[in-house]
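Bumping with the actual sequence this time:
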Amino acid sequence: MFKSHPLGFVLTVLLVPVAIGIVILLWWFLICKSTKLEVIGNDIVLTKGLLSKDTTEVDIARIRSVNVYQSFFNRMFGVGDIKIYTAGDDPEIEVSGVPNPNEFRLLVKQIQG
């Protein structure tokens, strides 16, 4: 959580004495823990949700491009945002705060052959 948004994390920790910081940190933690991006065979699977699940599956052979965005702080901490495009202008999969996003991009390119 700290690595993906360091300034937001520090601000939230400063709000802990007011009690709203604890609620924000707990909500943020649950969102982080309920998002999972994995490569299974020739598919990339994004699963979101704690109680209800939303699953998006994309065949690696159909991927047109993988966009990795890292701000200055993201680069310092080794995290970033990934967008995966298959067709059109809207990404099929979009995930924030991924550790080592360039390694994921290289893995997708390697599997594509």
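The tokens above came from a reply further down the thread. Residues 12 and 25 are 7 Å apart (CA to CA).
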